[in-house]
Amino acid sequence: MAQKRKKNNQGNLIMITGVIAVLVLIGIGLYSAFSSIGGGSSNNETKAAYSEISFENQPVYGKEDAPVTIVEFVDFKCPSCKEFHKGIFPQLKKDFIDKGKAKLILVNFPVIEGEDSPRAAMAGEAVFNQNKEAVWKYYEALFDNQDKEFTSEFSVELAKKELPDIDAKKLEQELKENTYASAVSDDQIIGRKLEVQSTPTILINGKEVAFFNYPAIKAAIEEELGSEGDE
Fold first, then answer.
1. For 23-27, 107-111, 135-139, 145-149, which range has the lowest pLDDT when averaged over its residues?
2. Which of 38, 66, 166, 217 has the smallest C-beta neighbourhood within 10 Å, fewest atoms?
3. In whole angstroms, what is the distance from residue 70 CA to residue 205 CA?
4. Phi, psi of 78, rounded to the nearest 5 degrees
């Protein structure tokens, strides 16, 4: 009788173990399926978002018809953005932009807390709308004075110093009235659509690359140039 009971217990244990194993396998399968669907959907959505975004009204450095587009999301108070413009950008300019192989598009994405970052972005927008070529000199001046407080008064004086032909009164009025607040907001919307989390975020034809790694940036650009040649 005890032996029969023992056999029954063993049978029940095997059955329970089997049921648990099946449930585990089902759980793993469902998890894998949902993870695969979620990850693929996210990647596809990001790619689709980039392809649908127009950068027509953004500052462009380089030839408009350059085959490779470098998009930078920038905060002028961000030390890493300054590092990119002082260390990486000159190399990009020499190797690709000056040769017509790539262009740089700048998109405002203020992330540093406080009023300085949005003010700098609005000042840049105002200068850009007055002089699309000279604005790059103003951007460099903003980085050079990153340790200063970007008040409206300082932004105007900086523009007068760096760009003697600028309409300083118009710039002052536009900063006073926050004329370009909506333009900066529109830039931030672009960043959120592309899931930008920090600055600088660098995209090479829509693919994110580490901003501090010039060899990786160079390789990504060369890969895109190779793809253009294969088409």
1. 23-27
2. 38
3. 6
4. -85, 120
The 10s digit of each residue's pLDDT in 44-100 is 565 568 888 999 999 999 999 999 999 999 999 999 999 999 999 999 999 999 999
Single pTM value for the model: 0.78
Taking the C-alpha atoms of residue 81 and residue 78, their distance in angstroms, rounded to an integer, is 5
Distances in Å between the alpha carbon of 125 and those of 47, 49, 180? 27, 24, 6
Check whether 41 has a pLDDT greater than 70.
no
**Beta bridge partners of residue 173, listed in sequence order:** none
- Per the document, the length of the chain is 231
Sheet holding 60-61, edge to edge: 60-61, 102-108, 68-74, 201-204, 207-209
Task: Choose among 155, 59, 76: nearest CA to 111.
Answer: 76
> What is the average pLDDT score of the chain?
84
- CA neighbor of 62 nearest in space, from 105, 13, 124, 22: 105
Give residue 51's pLDDT. 85
Q: Can you give the pLDDT at residue 66?
A: 98
